[in-house]
Amino acid sequence: MGELRGYRVGNQWRVRGRDWLEYTGALTGPRVFVVANAKGGAGKSTFATNLAVLRAGEGKRVLLLDLDPQGHLATLLNMPVDPDRTTVQLLNEELRLPRTAPGHRDRWHTLWTDLLQRVPGADEHEALSRLLLVPAHNDLADLERANFHRTKPTEYALREALEALVGLGVEIDEIWIDTPPNLGPLTRNALMAAHYVVSPFAKSDLGLDGLERLMVLVEQYLEFNPYLHVAGLVMNYGNPRTIMHNEIRETIKGRTSLAPFLLESYVSEAERFNQAPRLGVPLVLAEPNSSSAQELRRVLQEVEARVQ
Ligand SMILES: Nc1ncnc2c1ncn2[C@@H]1O[C@H](COP(=O)(O)OP(=O)(O)OP(=O)(O)O)[C@@H](O)[C@H]1O
Ligand SMILES: [Mg+2]
């Protein structure tokens, strides 16, 4: 690991993205998936939760990180949120100490130990015993608005936190990150820290618009983060009996920037998703034999096939 060169802008200290990555090297250890789409309501939180739970059901030790100030993951997992134990603390500027600073590792150890939380329901559903959550809090929105991490590039805060986690030897096989419906600093942090992005999109033109913007961002980030791959664009609210479903799929297949990433599998519009917060556990556990759970399993299989 060489010297990290920086440059000053006014009274701020900056580091170029590429330099930072070369300094830190590839993120080893757990595979990191981010679920993103700039559009609201595309199904990000639904997918992040259910896909992570399915992975835990396969025997993987999975960490779910909520980077959306709305904090829907805790709701979907029926988990009370302690405002002092959230991704706000994870991204907090105070921890941006140089790696060589005394106590750096201990501070991360203390923080991660405090933040990694078990979710309720493990007695009834074994999969949940292998799932950890760091929930979000509304204060994330303030963190996003404030110019946080003034001494390092904003986009690298989460990546650094995950490197610290790996360095602590915590046994986690996979990390799934939920993001807010925009392409601001929180989503950028997730994309910079991730290996794979999964992007559900709603069956509508607006959904496509969001995808276009996401693809532009992914292209930008591939320049910084050569470890990021698009694992799949997944249609949500699908219904192959409708003209729109088929038209949207054909449109995507006609766009060279999007076509290679479109998954054959999709998730149909289903009323049961709206009951999800009341189910107490994610849909794939509450109704494992439902058509929606089957569709989500197919999505995961296709994602898995693409990331190997
Ligand atoms: N296939 C579906 N059929 C019907 N309802 C769905 C489907 N997928 C998700 N929903 C519902 O739509 C709403 C939005 O889904 P979700 O919260 O997963 O989207 P999101 O992209 O995370 O939204 P936000 O951008 O606000 O974070 C939720 O009430 C969810 O239960
Ligand atoms: Mg959400």
TrEMBL record:
Transmembrane segments: none annotated. It holds the Pfam family AAA_31. Residues 31-222 form the AAA domain. InterPro entries: AAA_dom (IPR025669), DNA_Partitioning_ATPase (IPR050678), P-loop_NTPase (IPR027417). It comes from the Bacteria. This is Chromosome partitioning protein.
